Amino acid sequence: MPLCNRHLLGLEGMPKDDIQLILDTATTFREVLDRPIKKVPTLQGKTIVNLFFESSTRTRISFELAERRLSADVVNFSADASSVKKGETLKDTARNIEVMKIDMIVMRHTAPGAAVFLSNVTGAIIINAGDGSHEHPTQALLDMYTIREKHGRIEGLNICIVGDISHSRVALSNIFGLKTMGANVAICAPKTLIPCEVEQLGVKVFYNIDEAIRWADILNVLRIQLERQDRAFFPSLREYRQHFAVTRERLDKSKKTLTIMHPGPINRDVELSADVADSEHSVILQQVLNGVAVRMAVLYLLGTRS
Ligand code: NCD
């Protein structure tokens, strides 16, 4: 069965079967990454453009690796060195790229909705690599893959997303995906970093990190997105750390062992203490590795869908 949609714009409304298919396909590609020769001919002859209008380390390298491991032809575009600086619109940029006969565009953009817009103005297959504070579907998929790998399931687990929920596309995509897969989802942050009416998404809300730790099996810790904050949402980073940082001391108070996740980049000793980030309970580097396999799965399923 192919995926329902020809683009990957977000996880809102994505059926459970589609998420399952991506995660199962990623398992096959994860195996390829352990082989001495990590390349398969699956997307030979396909051309993919990585359109990045916002800075990125992990996601960009991960997509490019995934594309090359599938033998696609890859073109990288960075907004800093492009005609966008000369005033060209997104639509014109995309149309000019498309006319050169490309098959897929992977885009990261600062504007929420940019990926949906692109899918309406070009004929290429679009993969959203993060659109402002809206969605980051491949991050949530790799998070779910990592949860399944570590716990053997997603359904029924208590997963709490901690940090800057209001400005985080990772939070929103995780909420949509995890709810669809049957997890119990909570968020934990200061009131000022929680969007209003968030309960409508079916999540539990904690304002106290110790209570969240008592409830959760897994913590997905997020960075404070200072670059998206137009005013102060809390007095200082020191105070944020004091009340919300995930530290060894706080985790030790809990009787069980929690799995610690983070999409990166980590601000060490702000939202997450360095010793916890590097501890045996952290799956942060597994997330990065699994990201390549998950992106290979998405590219394969969309790129070969008839
Ligand atoms: C996230 C992003 O860019 O949304 N990082 C990532 O893709 N690995 C989270 C962040 O920037 O904090």
List the helices and strands and how they pair.
Elements: H1 16-32, E1 47-52, H2 58-69, E2 73-78, H3 90-98, E3 104-109, H4 114-121, E4 125-131, H5 137-151, E5 158-162, H6 169-180, E6 184-188, E7 204-206, H7 209-215, E8 218-221, H8 237-244, H9 248-252, E9 259-261, H10 274-277, H11 284-303
Parallel strand pairs: 1-2, 1-3, 3-4, 5-6, 5-8, 6-7, 8-9
Keyphrases for this structure?
alpha/beta, Rossmann fold, four-stranded parallel β-sheet, 15% strand, globular, binds N-carbamoyl-L-aspartate
CATH-defined superfamily of the largest domain: Aspartate/ornithine carbamoyltransferase
Ligands bound, unique:
N-carbamoyl-L-aspartate
Number of strands: 9
Report, as a whole number of angstroms, the end-to-end distance. 11 Å
Integer average pLDDT: 94
> N-to-C SSE series?
HEHEHEHEHEHEEHEHHEHH
The residue ranges in which pLDDT falls below 50 over 5 or more consecutive positions are: none
Beta-strand proportion: 5-15%
Query: Please, how many helices?
Result: 11
User: Strands of the biggest beta sheet: in what spatial order?
Assistant: 7-6-5-8-9
Number of domains: 2
What is the CATH domain class of the largest domain?
Answer: Alpha Beta
The CATH architecture assignment of the largest domain turns out to be 3-Layer(aba) Sandwich
* CATH topological fold name of the largest domain: Rossmann fold
* Approximate shape: globular
Q: Biggest sheet, open or closed, and with what strands and sense?
A: 5 strands, parallel
Give Rg in angstroms.
19 Å
- Helicity, as a percent range: 25-40%
> Structural class given helices, strands, pairing?
alpha/beta
